[in-house]
Amino acid sequence: METIIKTEDLSIAFGGHWAVSDVSIDIKRNIFTSVIGPNGAGKTTFFNLLSGQLSPTKGRVFYKGEDITKHSVIQRTRNGIGRSFQITNVFPNITVLENVRLAIQSREQVRFDLFRHFKSYRQFEEEAMNLLETVLLAEKAEIPAASLSHGEKRKLEIAMLLALNTEVLLLDEPTAGMSLEEVPAILNVIKNIKEQEDRTVVLIEHKMDMVLDLSDRMMVLFNGELLAEGTPEEIMANETVQAAYIGGDPNDSTTT
Amino acid sequence: MMKRLQTSTWVYLLIAFVLMLLPFVKDDRWFLFLMIQIFVFAIFAMSYDLLLGYTGIVSFGHAMFFGIGAYSVAVTMSRLDSTFSSFLLGVVVAVIISGIVAFLAGVLTLKLKSHYYAMLTLALAGMFLYIAERWRSVTGGNDGFTFRIPELPGVLQDHRNVVIYLFTLLSMVLLFFGMKRLTESPLGRVLVGIRENDQRVESLGFRIMPYKVLISVVSGVIAALAGVLYAVSLRFVNTQVFDIEVTLDALLMTIIGGVGTLVGPILGSAIMNLSHHFLSDLASVHWIFQRWVILFGIIFILVVIFFPNGIVGTIQKKMHERKMKQRVKQVEKQSAKN
């Protein structure tokens, strides 16, 4: 199977602390990979390295065989790596619909159009509305994003990411902060993306049980290191991983 | 959505039409002059709001574009003969110089955080003020100079002030609709995105630098056009056009009228100019009115505290809230029926 994203000894240090250290991994095309690990394991930092928000202290990132370590966020997005943010990151004072519409506009490369082309403009708006229906936000389309609840903002994040229609979707804890009733609907949206089998999804999740049946592959981060990588069954059976989740240092528990 | 847009356009056109008829009812010199000032500063404040309200860029040197416009047309027309072609040449010179200055200021600083732009524009405006004061052979120094504007054919010459009034009004209306279109275009939407969250715009795949530079140039050029109109309406120019007070006026007009709207700056300009005029007249009643700026400072503080969205912004918000409530009611009614 073809590799779409590959990292080589990917590491980043903040001060003397290695937030991510020597992570080498192959992510296969059109496969659903989950990144799990306890708080502070370096999951989001790892994502920031993939999407270009941070540049690594050492190591490299490849996308479709090309070294993209030095590429900016903009270049990576245009080449097909889209991401959602764990800490909500939307445009607060414009409407929910407009938030999504901007993402569509970017995908369609309408960048310096001073004189509005009405027809394409309307198409964008309709598509944005459809996406909002997908994530169950259609009723809130006309209100400013700032007045959404936390969970609704997360849904908006997903809609914006879907609007970009990138080959790779990096989802950073998409269900964090949602009310329990909302979670299944969003998992459904993610499941639908997976079932189309034309996207590569990498998903960060804190709670392991939530993604077990969704994932094709799982990778476990602990203290910035890649602890294990494999199918969900392999990960479940892995003693090191279990030790990490129960607590304590996994290296200790395996040696004793 | 589309229908509401159209009705608002009709309202604007109607107001423009009424303003057009105004000088035929009342053509006192002081009145026409006051209205011309309102139009000129409305254009200037709108150009300022393109930066402040739509893109979130703070400029403390916007007066330099105003001054560049005023001096460009004044110098050109006093050096050459006062014909319409030299007026046009002056406009072209104003556009080119202000465009270049805005481009350079943008390229140099907009990559950095926005306050660097504020500081650089402040410094540049100071530099232009200094040049205008010292380069006496061209600018006439502090005292400035008067110049002649071309004579109008026939009867129009007798009603020259009315013609200038109409010309300024027409310029304001055209620039208003031009800027309205700009802010509603796909490009304008990206600008608002930059104001709201520039990092997020980048992670959507837009490069933000070109947008900031572009709007800096557009805003600078429009401000220069306001300066052109200002100089022509006075037939006089001096170093005051580069004064920091001109920038602060634009800032006040924009904030009082409504940041992030185009009608707001026009309203702000009207309020500032009218109150300046009429409050100064009340000086014989009480000395405080002579120092009307004190009163204005207090009003400004109150506006910022209680109506941070300005007049137009507050009205828009109220209307929007009412619409939202009605929609909620409709949804409730429907679900009750079901």
Automatic annotation (TrEMBL), chain A:
SMART domains: AAA. GO terms for cellular component: plasma membrane. This is ABC transporter ATP-binding protein. Signal peptide: none annotated. PROSITE patterns: ABC_TRANSPORTER_1, ABC_TRANSPORTER_2. Keywords: ATP-binding, Nucleotide-binding, Transport. Residues 5-248 form the ABC transporter domain. The gene is livG. GO terms for molecular function: ATP binding; ATP hydrolysis activity. SUPFAM superfamilies: P-loop containing nucleoside triphosphate hydrolases. Gene3D superfamilies: P-loop containing nucleotide triphosphate hydrolases (3.40.50.300).
TrEMBL record, chain B:
Keywords: Cell membrane, Membrane, Transmembrane, Transmembrane helix. GO terms for molecular function: branched-chain amino acid transmembrane transporter activity. Pfam families: BPD_transp_2. The chain crosses the membrane at residues 6-25, 30-48, 54-75, 87-108, 114-132, 162-179, 213-238, 250-272, 292-315. It is found in: Cell membrane. It is a multi-pass membrane protein. One of its GO terms (cellular component) is plasma membrane. Coiled coil: none annotated. This is Branched-chain amino acid ABC transporter permease. It comes from Alkalibacillus haloalkaliphilus. The gene is livM.
